[in-house]
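Appendix B. Extra example for self-study. Work through it before the problem class; the solution is given directly after the inputs so you can check yourself.
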Amino acid sequence: MSWTRDQMAARAARELSDGFYVNLGIGMPTLVANHIAPGIDITLQSENGMLGMGPFPYAGEEDPDLINAGKQTITELRRTSYFSSADSFAMIRGGHMDLSILGAMEVAENGDIANWMVPGKLVKGMGGAMDLVAGARRIIVMMEHCDKAGRPKFVGRCSLPLTGANVVDMIVTDLAVFARADRSGSPFQLIECADGVSADDVRARTGAAFIQ
Amino acid sequence: MPKTYADATTALDGLLFDGMTIAAGGFGLCGIPELLIAAIAASGVKNLTVVSNNAGVDGFGLGVLLAQRQVKKMISSYVGENKEFERQYLSGELELEFAPQGTLAERLRAGGAGIAGFYTRTGVGTLIADGKEHKDFGGETYILEHGIVADLAVVHAWKGDPYGNLAYRKTARNFNPNTATAGKVTVAEVEQLVEAGSLDPDGIHTPSVYVQRLFQGAGFEKRIEQRTIRERAA
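Solution. Structure tokens for the complete assembly:
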């Protein structure tokens, strides 16, 4: 057994606290917005220049001037504000965002993350990922535990070019949750396994060293 | 001195030359100066260095400049939506400098603000930091990034007045205000050219000093890249 993408998103959503300002990366992390617990009020940032991102519009109400960082049509809320790209990344780089949740191709046991480039393949670019991992106060990675070839993605050292060094605080995969107490040498700890998954199963499919 | 022009072609008259650097506003296809880009494409100017967060799509926006081989180098954070870009880059015809999105925005802001460089934590420990000065502040390592000043900046605004004051709409603001400050000359296309005094002075995003020429465009496409909708509850 393992968690579905929605179960992973629900688990990541438990890390949200009331009043948080959060940036959700493109892809799986956007599912987190569907699992926010009652009584938890958060404000979503879209790094193209918006705080207070609302849901997708109803058909016929799409606005080409209103998109998220994934270039999808969205809507505004009563709290929404708009600003320039420089202001947007000032709030990211300046440590004003409580949390960013991103996908990754690899995370290493020292907190390094690689999610923008595979050498030898066409490189599309890092977009805002390097700024987000360097600037948000807390970084959670959501990713499949293993790649399509079955190789672990939580590894001893990243083999791919890094997006950021020593920046990941928590990892939510389809098998388990890992977290570390700080970025000053604390190891990642296995804090939770998916239903029906044992710690031994997790260890067998993980390249990184971690504590239990 | 009047700043208003009839259309994109006349607004660019005398400003374009081979080998120049052009900074263009927009994010994806949202808020791109589509008429100015089309006029630059039609001019045939070449060997351009283009500073833009993205590179348009095949057949629209900066994709047209790429297809016509007018671009020598792109400075961007994400170029994934463009097949012709991919082909030219892989064949070595096109130079590419990746800049993290926030670093790119700040480089434009800095260039426009007379700041030659700044230190940022973004990219420390990555390929982006290679060859850049590293400096520690308060126990944290930062890298030096340089401001960008372009020969020409082109932006898209929602409303502009004859003095060149601009207001943007929703997320079409994005890189436009930062780009507008970073041009030795800045040209704006606006959806509505309004009378002097009709913009709220408190709601002007780009003050007129940054804009040398502007025109009211017609026939904007304003394409949507990812049309996403939700179902109405029954």
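Self-check: Chain A touches chain B through 54 residues (CB under 8 Å). If your reasoning did not lead you there, revisit section 3.
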